[in-house]
TrEMBL record, chain A:
Compartments, record wording: Cell membrane; Early endosome membrane
GO cellular component: early endosome membrane; plasma membrane
Annotated function: The small GTPases Rab are key regulators of intracellular membrane trafficking, from the formation of transport vesicles to their fusion with membranes. Rabs cycle between an inactive GDP-bound form and an active GTP-bound form that is able to recruit to membranes different sets of downstream effectors directly responsible for vesicle formation, movement, tethering and fusion.
GO molecular function, one term: GTP binding
Chemical reaction(s) catalysed: GTP + H2O = GDP + phosphate + H(+)
Named cofactor requirement(s): Mg(2+)
Protein name: Ras-related protein Rab-4
Record keywords: Endosome, GTP-binding, Hydrolase, Lipoprotein, Magnesium, Membrane, Metal-binding, Methylation, Nucleotide-binding, Prenylation, Protein transport, Transport
NCBIfam families: small_GTP (TIGR00231)
Family: Belongs to the small GTPase superfamily. Rab family.
SMART domains assigned to the protein according to its UniProt record, in alphabetical order: ARF, RAB, RAN, RAS, RHO
TrEMBL record, chain B:
Known role: May act as a GTPase-activating protein for Rab family protein(s).
InterPro entries tied to this protein: Rab-GAP-TBC_dom, Rab-GAP_TBC_sf
Pfam family for this entry, one: RabGAP-TBC
Keyword Phosphoprotein: yes
Superkingdom of this protein's organism: Eukaryota
Keywords tagged on the record: GTPase activation, Phosphoprotein
Segments forming domain Rab-GAP TBC: 119-343
Protein name, entry field: TBC1 domain family, member 22a
PANTHER family per the UniProt record, alphabetical: TBC1 DOMAIN FAMILY MEMBER 22A, TBC1 DOMAIN FAMILY MEMBER GTPASE-ACTIVATING PROTEIN
Amino acid sequence: MSETYDFLFKFLVIGSAGTGKSCLLHQFIENKFKQDSNHTIGVEFGSRVVNVGGKTVKLQIWDTAGQERFRSVTRSYYRGAAGALLVYDITSRETYNALTNWLTDARTLASPNIVIILCGNKKDLDADREVTFLEASRFAQENELMFLETSALTGENVEEGFLKCARTILNKIDSGELDPERMGSGIQYGDASLRQLRQPRGSTAQNKQQCSC
Amino acid sequence: MPVRYSRGESDSTKDCWMKWQIMDDDWDRETVLARKVLAALSARIWIKWSAGEHAALHRQRSLPHRPPVIPLVARMADQNTSGTPAMTEREASRLDKFRQLLAGPNTDLDELRKLSWSGIPRQVRPITWKLLSGYLPANAERRESVLKRKRHEYFGFIQQYYDSRNDEHHQDTYRQIHIDIPRTNPLIPLFQQASVQEIFERILFIWAIRHPASGYVQGINDLVTPFFVVYVFEYIEEEVENFDVSSLQEEALRNIEADSFWCMSKLLDGIQDNYTFAQPGIQKKVKALEELVSRIDETVHRHMQHYEVEYLQFAFRWMNNLLMRELPLRCTIRLWDTYQAEPEGFSHFHLYVCAAFLVRWRKEILEEKDFQGLMLLLQNLPTMHWGNEEVSVLLAEAYRLKFAFADAPNHYKR
């Protein structure tokens, strides 16, 4: 099965244990909540093709284990990631406090240009909230992150999280801020755009001329 | 748009049940197979593995998906419980052999290992596991007092340390265990019972603080499960999956807890470097797996290399959780019969089992023509129908590999 797509982006889902990383991924790909979620060992892989701003983008997503002991393994996946969902649990201040560490890891180990969206997950558990929207939103601003509160349970903002991240990367490619050709950019051209690239505009015109005669 | 997958299993539980009845375990099958493969080895004949009719993995699946655990007990039951249809003659005779061996005043552990390698009948599994793991002494007279002392010792630890779980320097450990336990075997009702979860928390917490070099690492929680299930079987006749532990006498439950703790500790003693900082044991074994596979099936190895699949990406979990995430629980229990019978079963033989397991999927692997397809296949191998038969074949092949490479490690080094 080979779908055509314009770009392939490598994504990471990172954050402390039990924040709902795997459930976010599952909700994004399956459109439903994973009731019987087991904790992730090492990394797990998922993928989905999305449409963003008229472009077809294949997201290759690495869902990482949250426990500290696995960092030596999960860190090796950071290299060459174009985007990341940095997840904390709005009902657990501890997972919020750990964000700085996760962020440092992501920025130093992945590309410095990595596009990160902060996701305050478990939005549905508002009664148990320990981190306010405002506080997290300030943190996001200070650290130049996009920010959303999500619920893997209801699906609220899950799709938006992934799409927003993908859209920002696309915009940066368009503006020249990101160079897909750079090693470790976490971006690859898909078949569709490769075809366009292989055929520069001049030659297209030539072909047309040939056809018309 | 989201790519959908279907789970690839079409057989109803009933179908499976029937199939399992038919291919009911021939306990000696592994031995026979092992002999066959050894013969084949000398002639350099490759044993062809049947890919299995249920190997059809839906190509479109795109999310890591662990197969739901199918009736743990359906398969446990086919291991000749008293309640199931008559045992085959061979099974009955095997059970007899075990009983004879266990009846003597001094159990011959070498004999017990030999006999156990091909699988242990359910009725004698609890005591056999305790003997093989070194928890119980071979001398029958001493067993009762050893059990009493060890159980007492364990509950002494609980009394002494368990209250410290909320102390500052232990709270990270406890918190991690506490969020992992409800996620352990989420599909088996037995493990959703509060008293069972409390038992797991105690076992893991005590083990973790007594082993500060590794502490609690996710995955270790899974390793308690087989012991717990097998030791529950010591006290009940019925299915374990939906069993309500509150119907057990309190003392029985305490015994199960202590015995599970000690046997799990014995297991972990042999593989602790899997869980210490940077997990060197796993790194080393994944490397060894890669080397081994490159020698035994270069086509598969090259295929994965070609699509830039790294062994660590799928085999990390195989090592960290001893294949427990890849196989149904009933298969793990059968696998552990052999691991406990095999010298360095968990720490060394497991590597050969992993190699045999990977090559088992060569057909499916070679059919995948991109990174994504390979990754999804390797992280979601369709084993949910597996029972003793498949595990036996796997073990026979692993044994063949070990025979060929273990005594000559340079063989598999390039």
